[in-house]
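Try this one yourself first.
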């Protein structure tokens, strides 16, 4: 499936870690830390808006920011932001500062055609964040290395019309691999990493539906990476990893809302087990599936958000140690925040972003140990940063 606006976006992935145990020993997840007292005053500053290009005498041609991801790409200790621009086929690089401001001081990096998703990780072992982008129109994945200047180092062919990319170690060699949702067909691709930033070997697996988005975690607590795949049939498929780069087939599927776009993993009910949440653009809501810890999930719990929700991110936004959710609402130009501590979430609180809010990232941009939000606005080619003012 080829994507036109609106289309799928990157999400922030919360990985659940574990250590493989002996086959005959039942392995239980560690007890979660008790919840902390939430901030007495919770909220965000009015959004600060950034354009996609450095200040230059010529006009900025970056357009249609579809996806974003945060990380320390230059090693200065501050969170930077990468933004994938679908129409101009490039990435805008925002370098973070101690005050939470973003500097657009690097020329945009050309990638494949129609980038729609970004994932980050240290692919070459140098201690800096690197990035992989899924390019919907050129049927490949582009690899960028972090450093003082972000550089493109290669690309790898994948299945038709890739829509999403995520990263984890799927074969137990301590090197990060990639998993890609391919929008045409009913499969996902796994590209095994070498630890040097290359991904020469690809394998394909059944997703029980046309994939839209993927997220990675350890759903059954065996220390092996599993994959959740949102599909066009209003389902999410769960593929349990075997630890050798393969998965148990066929995957088990669960029903979510209408036209799901994004998926994120986190411990939403504070029981030490990973849960799932999807955004559903056709029903204007979020579906939450509580994990049992054995690789299965309960039925969907629904929460209303803004109109046409796209990207979803998980993180602690009100300093109570619980996972909260942030959702970018494309048609209402807002971001919805669902605070944890309800059943498992409280009703959404809405904040203004920009026209065509598509992708949201949760990260600590100003170094105060509070989760801030960055939202890409496809309608006006900008990024909105909302700094957390909770105390």
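Now uncover the answer:
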């Amino acid at each position: 499936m080829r994507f036109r606006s609106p289309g799928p976006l990157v999400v922030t992935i919360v990985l659940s870690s574990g250590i493989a145990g002996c086959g005959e020993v039942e392995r239980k997840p560690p007890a979660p830390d008790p919840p902390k007292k939430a901030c007495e005053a919770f909220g965000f500053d009015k959004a600060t808006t950034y354009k996609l290009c450095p200040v230059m005498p010529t006009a900025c041609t970056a357009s249609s920011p579809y996806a974003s991801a945060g990380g320390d790409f230059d090693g200065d200790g501050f969170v930077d932001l990468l933004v994938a621009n679908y129409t101009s086929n490039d990435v805008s690089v925002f370098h973070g500062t101690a005050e939470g401001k973003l500097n657009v001081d690097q020329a945009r990096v050309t990638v494949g055609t129609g980038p729609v998703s970004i994932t980050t990780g240290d692919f070459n072992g140098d201690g800096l964040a690197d990035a992989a982008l899924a390019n919907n129109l050129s049927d490949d994945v582009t690899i960028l290395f972090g450093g003082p200047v972000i550089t493109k180092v290669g690309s790898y062919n994948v299945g038709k019309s890739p829509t999403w990319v995520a990263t984890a170690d799927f074969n137990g060699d301590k090197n990060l691999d990639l998993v890609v949702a391919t929008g045409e067909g009913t499969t996902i691709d796994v590209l095994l990493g070498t630890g040097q930033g290359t991904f020469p070997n690809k394998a394909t697996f059944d997703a029980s539906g046309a994939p839209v988005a993927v997220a990675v975690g350890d759903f059954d607590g065996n220390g092996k990476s599993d994959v959740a795949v949102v599909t066009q049939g209003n389902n999410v498929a769960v593929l349990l990893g075997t630890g050798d780069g393969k998965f148990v087939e066929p995957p088990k599927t669960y029903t979510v809302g209408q036209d799901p776009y994004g998926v994120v993993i986190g411990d939403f009910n504070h029981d030490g087990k990973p849960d799932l949440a999807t955004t559903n653009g056709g029903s204007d809501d979020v579906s939450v599936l509580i994990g049992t810890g054995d690789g299965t999930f309960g039925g969907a719990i629904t929460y209303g958000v803004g109109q046409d929700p796209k990207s979803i991110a998980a993180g602690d936004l009100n300093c109570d140690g619980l996972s909260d959710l942030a959702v970018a609402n494309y048609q209402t130009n807002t971001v919805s925040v669902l605070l944890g501590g309800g059943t498992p979430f409280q009703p959404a609180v809405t904040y203004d972003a920009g026209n065509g809010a598509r992708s949201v990232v949760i990260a600590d941009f100003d170094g105060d140990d509070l989760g801030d939000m960055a939202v890409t606005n496809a309608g006006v080619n900008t990024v909105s940063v909302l700094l957390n003012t909770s105390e």
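Discussion: Confidence is low (pLDDT under 50) at residues 4-27. Residues 118 and 133 are 5 Å apart (CA to CA).
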